[in-house]
Hints:
Elements: H1 2-10, E1 16-25, E2 30-42, E3 46-48, H2 50-60, H3 63-83, E4 91-95, H4 97-101, H5 105-116, E5 123-128, H6 129-132, H7 136-149, E6 152-158, H8 165-168, E7 175-178, H9 180-184, H10 192-206, E8 209-212, H11 218-226, E9 231-232, E10 241-242, H12 243-253
Parallel strand pairs: 2-4, 4-5, 5-6, 6-7, 7-8
Antiparallel strand pairs: 1-2, 1-9, 1-10, 2-3
Protein name: EAL domain-containing protein
Organism: Azospirillum endophyticum
Amino acid sequence: LGLESDLRRASGGNEFELHFQPKIDLAANRTIGAEALIRWRHPVRGMVSPAEFIPLAEETGLIWEIGAWTLIESCRRLADWIRRDLPIPSVSVNLSPRQFQDARLVGFVRSVVESAGIPADRLELELTEGAMIGDIEKAVTILNGLKDIGVRLSIDDFGTGYSSLAYLKRFPIDTLKIDRSFVRDIVKSTTDPAIVGTIVNLAESLGFDTIAEGVETQEQADMLRQQRCTRIQGYLISRPLPIDQFETFLGNSV
Ligand code: G
Ligand code: G
Ligand code: MN
Ligand code: NA
């Protein structure tokens, strides 16, 4: 309960900050975007992981306020980078299931993008398959609403959820983010290279891009490349970085 009331207090935004993790394309050798990841600097506990407080925020409904802060702050930051001409094509923001199903979502995203004055296609929203189970018709309607704004959509942790192929072909999404569980053992596994290759083929057939998450070693990157997945994110390239360090990363990448 202590954490919950602290989270309630923090939800205005004062104790939160965003870190950004680069996504790169190995083939083109360039940064294609960055994922915004929230961090909570608790005055007493120090850094609290989102793995701990996002589930709590979902349960208590505080996720709406926290998600609003993350989206506004990410778009503001992107607007600033665009104004300063930094080489960052897009920023992605995670949406949890409850945010995705909130009736206010589409209108809110539209107003945040407009207020920030960013081109909508430079914002990406990352959704998990779990957000879209249940009422598929409703999910497709929301996805179409988001797509009408012009934002890009990706499925996070792809391969761990419940997307059937019948659903997937109806989703107006841009990218499948291959879950890090398939990357972790890809060098030694007898099955995981084939799984990754199958996801890449599937994505190509459906007109989606792919990116692999959790890439930590050069060997993993090489294996992914063999499976024609050239977009990667992970500690091999960089940890999620505070703003100033992320800007340094961008400065060094041009
Ligand atoms: O960055 P880290 O690995 O600690 O993140 C842990 C989990 O928290 C991940 O599943 C990530 O998607 C989630 N997460 C991080 N930032 C946000 C956010 O701003 N909104 C939501 N909904 N989830 C986030
Ligand atoms: O659930 P989601 O994919 O949004 O989680 C993203 C989180 O994964 C990031 O917040 C980050 O802390 C974590 N992460 C990023 N790169 C790596 C990596 O190379 N290895 C591991 N184990 N975790 C990573
Ligand atoms: Mn994510
Ligand atoms: Na993920």
